[in-house]
Design brief:
Blueprint lengths: L2 H13 L13 H17 L1 H5 L6 H55 L4 H10 L5 H17 L1 H5 L6 H55 L4 H5 L4 H18 L1
Length: about 250
């Protein structure tokens, strides 16, 4: 069964997890998934001993399936997040040029309309607002205002081609902003699915580990296989650091 199919198979169960019950992963997801798969291997080998304390072997199939579902959910979220980052980076690259033209249009129109209070009030009204959406709308409005009063701009030798550039920027940057905001919504939705999938998988991992730790409670080496290697190494490193600081 593919990981994608595993996610589809568990999607109803994942969606049903209450948000207040969500558990958050404190280690990298890649590490958690690798450890869950390693746990499946260890527990499969030790299955006869685990069954002696009434361990249900079907839990191993469920672990493998949930791990696949989590891997897909994490991949879906990372992909969407990456696409959103690319859109944001493109915005950061293009926005300075739009700000520059925005300032240029306002300055030239302010001078060209200096004798017309009505047009100056319209110009001031356009300048209100500081958000990205406001800036995009400003560019569209400035282009319209400039075309309606082209003769005044021509009287100060302003290149009317800049009005077409403003319209084009408004269209392109508007689409880009919509893409960023749209991906922001979907990223949150996909992240929620990922977090809920982790919650289910983590509960099962903890349960299987509890069986292994009990069965091998008198065998330190085997017992280690039922603990998070990542967390154990992190605790060891922390203790070494504290001991060094105390010297």
């Amino acid at each position: 069964m593919s990981d994608q199919q595993s996610l589809l198979d568990h999607l109803e169960e994942i969606t049903a997890v209450a948000e207040e019950k969500i558990r958050y992963c404190r280690i990298p997801y890649r590490v958690f998934i690798n450890e869950a798969e390693a746990l499946h291997t260890y527990a499969s080998i030790d299955l006869p001993l685990l069954q002696e304390v009434n361990f249900n072997p079907e839990k191993l199939d469920r672990l493998l399936s949930l791990t696949g579902a989590l891997r897909t959910a994490q991949s879906n979220w990372e992909t969407r997040k990456t696409e959103k980052q690319k859109s944001e980076e493109w915005w950061q690259k293009e926005a300075p040029e739009m700000h520059k033209l925005h300032r240029e249009l306002i300055d030239h129109m302010g001078f060209a309309f200096r004798g017309n209070e009505f047009l100056l009030r319209k110009l001031n009204g356009i300048k209100e607002g500081k958000s990205k959406a406001d800036l995009i709308q400003d560019m569209a409005n400035l282009a319209v205002l400039g075309r309606e009063n082209a003769e005044l701009l021509q009287a100060i030798n302003y290149d009317l081609a800049s009005l077409d550039t403003a319209t084009q920027m408004a269209d392109e940057m508007g689409s880009l902003l919509g893409d960023i905001n749209g991906r922001m919504y979907f990223a949150d939705d996909l992240k929620l699915t990922r977090d809920k999938a982790y919650t289910l998988c983590k509960a099962l991992v903890d349960e299987i580990r509890s069986y292994g730790k009990f069965v091998f409670r008198n065998n330190d080496e085997k017992r280690k296989a039922y603990a998070s290697k990542f967390n154990c190494e992190r605790v060891t490193a922390y203790r070494k650091t504290k001991a060094a600081e105390a010297m």
